[in-house]
Amino acid sequence: MNYTLHYGQVIGYLPDLLIGAAISLEIAFLAFSGGMVIGLVGALARTHGGRFLSAMAKAYVIFFTNTPQLAQIYFIFFGLPDLGILLSPFQAVLLGMTLNAGAYLTEIQRAGLASVRRSELEAAQTLGMSRLQQVRYVILPHIIRMLFPPLSNQYIMVTLGTSMASVFGVEELTGRALNVNSTTFRSIEIFSLTAAIYVGMTLLASLSLTVAGHHLFRARMKTT
Amino acid sequence: MLDRILSELPRFFGPYNLIFLGEALLSTLALSAAGCLVGCLVGFPIALLRRTRGWATLPLRAIATGFVELFRRVPFLVTLLTIFFVSQAVGLSLSTFSVGLVSVCLIASAFISEIVRGGLASVHANQTDAARVLNLSSRQTLVHVVLPQAWKVIIPPIFGFFVLFIKDTALASQVGVLELTYASKVLNSRGFSAVLVFGTILLLYFALSYPLSRLGALLEIRLAVRRSQRD
Q1: Nearest alpha-carbon partner for A70 in A46, A96, A51
Q2: Could you read off the pLDDT of A16-28 as tens digits, one per residue?
Q3: Which of B91, B198, B206 sits opposite A63 (nearest CB)?
Q4: CATH assignment at residue A52
Q5: A133, B6, B67, B206: which has the highest count of C-beta atoms within 10 A?
């Protein structure tokens, strides 16, 4: 155990790592946004889609939530070229993460849609609200308030999941940390720095999401 | 494409590959089981520790909170790489499997302690106040008042976590632990078609994880019904 810490040798790489962190955030944002769209379509298919569409959406959710994201991206990156679809590492990672997030977000949004009670809609009708007014003043506020906390948690999970991109050679935070590690061999320093950046990133996200949820939607937040 | 896969099938499911996949599957199972077991054993005391009040346990509480927050906010891959490289740097010669084992135990402890803490907190404060009025000790309060109500809230998300966790062990392949994902990379490099290899691996993971998630969903419904009946 005679190891001396030399943070001086890695601190110069901090800007490099921070650019990596920005790329991580970019992947997380794109995957989460794409996942939200898939999730909305999936949730609508599950609740209003009829038997066939509902079964399709359910199969998609079950398959993607029960297999590892890493193995899914392996399949996309190495398997799809055999079928004639060639993707760059960034595209493969993004596609895999979007599909994976979409499965979880389908489940979350389905629960949100199911949580609007019939009595609420009846009350809105009694007040003489049009269909559009019901959506605007009753359904959407209710759903957003219900869904904001689980969606925030999912966003954090997606952010942490972006570290997988390094496996496929995308130079995001973890990828850059590995590069710096192989140039400097200052493993403890570089990885503790990387971990600290991840902690900072997710803390900042949780904090701002909690504040936003509390003020904008009066959501009762219990984010990670 | 399809004829290539079909022509590879007999060779792919030859005895040698089956033993190889079986060993990899066992390794994935061992990692998951160890993580779940140690996670429950360590996570529970951590949650209890974080519930204590007063100055005496403040340093311990701070350490526990720091531990939990750290491992829940750092990606699993980074935890694995850190433990892998740190153990090398300080001269511990851990096998890659031990590195995986240590990492999964740390992660599982952090996540499970948070689930347990949430479950314990779900028991209303009136209950513990009432128990104190009845002159129950804190141990008695926990065993006879809090836990009988909290376990129904704790069990379903723990199963949910186990399902997440089996899938997370796939990342251990990145430090060279020979588990399912690593095995698939090896088989792919031996020339088997990627669709066949990674498709098989996905199905194997699915077979591991799906029964557990069904069980979790079932428990959630069962326990939720009983709880609403009581109210």
Answers
A1: A96
A2: 999 999 999 999 9
A3: B206
A4: 1.10.3720.10
A5: B206
